[in-house]
Specification:
Layout (H helix, E strand, L loop, with lengths): L4 E5 L2 E5 L4 H4 L3 E3 L2 E4 L6 H14 L6 H19 L3 E11 L2 E10 L10 E7 L14 H12 L4 E6 L4 E5 L3 E6 L4 E4 L10 H12 L4 E4 L9 E8 L3 E8 L2 E2 L8 H14 L4
Parallel strand pairs: 7-8, 7-14, 11-12
Antiparallel strand pairs: 1-2, 1-6, 3-5, 4-5, 5-6, 8-9, 10-11, 10-13, 13-14, 14-15
């Protein structure tokens, strides 16, 4: 079934073709989130991401005006989707020396708390944007995921450099759990991967739970040393991974640490003020 995409632009909500070029490509930065009716988890963090992106584009607009339009767009989209779950993608496009706001959104089925585990392929790719910036055309990421799908996999995990350092998937950060229940995720220090909003929330949550978490370089040769793996993003939060290339994980098991973290994050989103 085709996805119906809406765009908030010029104080109006309009239906657009899902393959509209202004939705997919261009000299722009954006942030993506899943909303539950009027609940938009970590909204202020998405605003900060956009503000950081504006600086990266070397544009210094009237930020108070953009913030007003962002809040107005969110309010109108909340009314439009009522109590349904929806994906929002506020996007800032560089136009000469200013920024143009377009707020894309589409309804999605309710997020299922299932134990489905993902199968992930591998490919080389070097990330070109700073770790705090989400933007660009995502052509390589989209092509990589399409290639993985054609192979019967769910996503693509990128690596880079002669040491084959693990980076991120087409739209998610990746975490691993070793035999000592230490949680590891690739470092963002050298711009190796996006410093994702959900990634940050998971790291903070893990520390609150008294578990050990490390951000460091992780190489492909280490995959066989981990017992669990999971992906994080703001659209589906935590997703267990059952396979990466020829390595297999017990991430979807009922007693897995991945499932415990998934339930805890769900409580943080719905059971408290986020």
């Amino acid at each position: 079934m085709a996805t119906t995409v809406y765009r908030y632009f010029g104080n109006e909500i309009e239906k657009i073709d899902q393959f509209n070029a202004s939705f997919l490509y261009g000299d722009l930065i954006f942030s993506t989130f899943r909303a539950f009716g009027s609940l938009v988890p970590w909204w202020k963090h998405h605003i900060e991401r956009l503000k950081c992106g504006a600086s990266f584009l070397q544009v210094h607009p009237n930020w108070n005006l953009i913030l007003h339009d962002l809040e107005d767009g969110k309010s109108k989209l909340v009314q439009h989707f009522h109590a349904h779950e929806w994906i929002g993608r506020p996007t800032l496009r560089k136009k000469e020396n200013d920024l143009q706001l377009m707020f894309f959104a589409w309804e999605v089925p309710a997020l299922q708390q299932s134990s489905q585990k993902l199968a992930v392929a591998l490919s080389e790719r070097k990330r070109v944007l700073p770790s705090e910036i989400k933007g660009g055309d995502y052509i390589i990421e989209n092509q990589g995921k399409q290639w993985a799908t054609e192979m019967g996999m769910d996503d693509i995990l990128f690596w880079q450099g002669s040491e084959k350092k693990i980076s991120e998937t087409s739209s998610s950060n990746v975490f691993f759990v070793d035999d000592h229940e230490e949680i590891l995720t690739p470092s963002t220090v050298d711009g190796n991967c996006l410093s994702g909003i959900t990634r940050k929330q998971v790291i903070a949550m893990v520390k609150r739970l008294g578990l050990k978490v490390s951000e460091r370089e992780i190489c492909l040769t280490e995959l066989g040393h981990f017992r669990e793996a999971f992906l994080t993003n703001c659209g589906q939060f935590i997703r267990p991974v059952g396979q990466i290339d020829n390595s297999f994980f017990s991430s979807a098991h009922d007693n897995s640490l991945t499932n415990k973290l998934k339930k805890e994050l769900n409580f943080c989103i719905h059971g408290s003020d986020v």
